[in-house]
Batch of 2 targets.
Target 1
Amino acid sequence: MIINIAHLYGNLLNTYGDVGNIMAFAHEARKAGFDTNIDIISLGDDFDYKKYDFVFFGGGQDYEQSIVQKDLIKKRDSIVAYIENGGILLAICGGYQLLGQYYYDAYNKKIDGLKIFDHYTINQENKHRFTGNIKVKSALNKDDLYTGFENHGGVTFLGSKQKPFAYVIEGNGNNGKDKSEGFRYKNTIGSYLHGPLLAKNKNLCKDLINILRDRRNK
Ligand code: GLN
């Protein structure tokens, strides 16, 4: 059986080895007996949400984010359908910001998000960034710890109905204030954890492979 992986804007958003998430996921999927096919879905490409089993949406610089934003809006309906259908989506940093309402970049330019989720992102004073190692505790499974590396100027606040992906033990996470890190909805995860997250945290990668298996066995 073949599983299809989409790397959204993989040629534009791919900071700090984010592509390692795809490598780790594909590696575990092959160990679980699947063959893998990886497509980059970028500017002007259709996103056929029915085709994909795993979608990765990585981080990027402000400039690339502003280019992607203009194209992204055309793929909005298929991304919403993919998410609501329970598809597995991992969005890191810039990708995570773009799923929300808006993002104010380091020069105070507003970049509209896809507005699929309620979170919004503003910038920090004097172009300050949150940079460094981060350790968090899963919100879903309290015994699961995840580690990663964060590097973001944006600070994100979740909407009142949104649930965090994890809680910060060390580092900053969404905003350095409320201890929340990322968000989770159905099988969609948004997070600031570069690392790459799935390469550094085999427990999370395996959880996603289990979800993949369950979806395939339905
Ligand atoms: N440009 C965004 C920020 O600085 C995202 C950075 C990233 O994806 N690493 O907040």
Note: The domain at 2-217 is CATH 3.40.50.880 (Rossmann fold).
Target 2
Amino acid sequence: MAKRGGRKTTVAVRRHRCFVSLDLPAALRDAAVAGQSFLRTKEHDLRYTAVSNLHLTLKFLGEISPDDRAEVRKRLGLISPQGVSLRLVRAGCFAPRIVWLAVHGADELQRQVDQALEGLFEPERRFMGHITIARTKGIPDALKMELGDFVVPVLDCPVSSFSLQESHLSHLGPRYETVARFALTES
Ligand code: ATP
Ligand code: MG
């Protein structure tokens, strides 16, 4: 609140919708696209994640102030580079909207993100690493069964970085903007 000439004026601070993302190696992105291609052969009304938007969310931060965004950026930069390797597990869904590929290997880094952001955000209670490949309005039983039929490739994929992303939502779909990227491998 700023005071000018004795009158109070509210200064609106622009907020930023942010999340911490694990940047997908090409092989995992390809596998996610293969999952989408598999689903396209079925008769469901799905909205597919744009290929360039495929990601794994380590932590959703919501709408935050510029100051908090700067603080988050600083703290994420203090996380030590470390080997992270991802493996696809299976296709599945969070009814009623989200179709995903489950991913193992991100839990430790997720805990470190939570630790780094302690005091600013609550830690995740039930983290489950996943890549959202499609969204829908309801998941019919047939789709659930078909998801079980998708054979995920057995791959161990090293990850080179994670990032702080800002999400811009519109009727055209989300657009993600990289605020900062953090290397996971020593260069
Ligand atoms: P849209 O909301 O238009 O479908 P989106 O979900 O990709 O697009 P955001 O809502 O900005 O875009 O979300 C960014 C990332 O954070 C996505 O991976 C999303 O699944 C995740 N996310 C969003 N809201 C939450 C939440 N409340 N809890 C956990 N993760 C969330
Ligand atoms: Mg969303």
Note: The chain has a mean pLDDT of 94.
